[in-house]
Amino acid sequence: MNDSIIDLVGNTPIVKSKRLVDKPGVDLYFKLEGQNPGGSVKDRAAYNMIKSALDRGDIDKNTKLIEATSGNTGIALAMIAGIFGLDIELVMPENSTIERVQTMRAYGAKVTLTDADVGIEGSRDYAEDKMKSGDYFMLNQFGNDDNWQAHYKTTGPEIWRDTDHRVTHFVSSMGTTGTIMGTSTYLKEMNKDIQIVGVQPSDDARIPGIRKWPKGYLPKIFNPEKVDRVLEVNEQEAIEMSRRLAEEEGIFAGMSSGGAAAAAVRLCNELDSGLVVSIVCDRGDRYLSSDLFKK
Prior knowledge:
By secondary structure, this protein is α/β, with parallel strands linked by helices. Helices cover 37% and strands 18% of the residues.
């Protein structure tokens, strides 16, 4: 019996791919972060950022929070803020899927939509300008060590434990880079030979949740030395793999998860042996109003 929905954050299942990789000695596993109560990997960071800020006294029940988000972090923050009785305003591009906007509002958050033309960078600029007024506190997922430390404390240890210490490669899409930074830090402490593979969109590709940031917007928590290799994927690869995950593996996930899986399959095809773990960062029902699953 759990005392709170927060107790269900983390300890997500890991499952072996049955159809995407057929190579003796090479196994691909998916970590199903959509099983978190808020539906994505971002529940981990949202909880750690809010709880740590409360514990330090950086915020209290009277604090107004504001944060820019492309979607999943906003949903997680809305859920966690609501549990702690905090007011939060979430800022995101107006072309975000309606499922994400409505979910944030269902959790009690105020949602502000910015011009799609300026993307998440415009949302970040808006949130930072509001914070400078002195009336808001921004958790700043892009520069907050509590983001990556959530994965150092939970995601990394879970992968190490659930693969019986046999993981050889870890694959993750890179957005705020919190997941890959924290997981890399832990896994490298356990075994320095584990290869950490980041996934970015190819030039001009638009894949929600994965970014190749302009230099001025590169997340401050990102340390390139913690990533051994970066693979790029295009939109079509991410879309096709998202559909294959659903049809062939029974894993219903979003486009960034498809991008990571496409890179993971490509990696597996290069290896002679290994155990590869790829993050499935959210659920596909968040994208039903988009074209992702339309044929």
